[in-house]
What we know:
Number of strands: 15
Helix content: 10-25%
Strand content: 25-35%
Oligomer: single chain
Amino acid sequence: xxxxxxxxxxNCGAAVSYFAWSCPNCHRRNLPNxxxxxxxxxxxxxxxxLVVLGWQSFRSDQAPDPQxxxxxxxxxxxxxxxxxYGWIVQAMADCDVAAKHKLDTLHFLIIPVTSTAVSLPGxxxxxxxxxxxxxxxxxxxxxxxxxxxxALALYQKPLIFAVSDPTSKTVxxxxxxxxxxxxxxxxxxxxxxxxxxxxxxxxxxxxxxxxINLTKGTCYWINPLILAAPRSG
Length: 233
């Protein structure tokens, strides 16, 4: 399985995953507070520049059982045409809070998107992982920038999120979800999981991507840019 790219802690310089909540060496937080990031996004948007959100990716807490269930999708209070997607940033913050209070539960927030025909000069999202030929994983900052500027749109077809234990090869799948979806599962103790997606619209099996190490008290924000085309006929 593909490994994840690794960055550097701005405090001590130690290697730290883009998906880690804090530096494993000095324990400094790796990503800014979502609420503070929201304020920065709004300020830049009002100034007329590109919308900027603090670096974000995933989070952790534990690992799933074979009957992992899906929570209801996050609400979109305004509809996509006039939405500034602040509700997604709030969903990220809510998932973080829930993960810290439920340490026996693994928390994911799935934010699937697709490209649109809108051109956004100066914006070039950097992939942080690949899910086979089905999707590219984006930073949460790039995802929100793309959504707010209409260069991206939420993927509105069923999507199945799956993870696999890299040691036992046991696969865990959630029920199909549409749009932004908080997903949880309990009573798991795997140190790492491999991420995957199944897109029913393509008729293809699960496409697998990077393996991430898990940390309790963290919500992983998964931002797949869906690439796979629907099956013909």
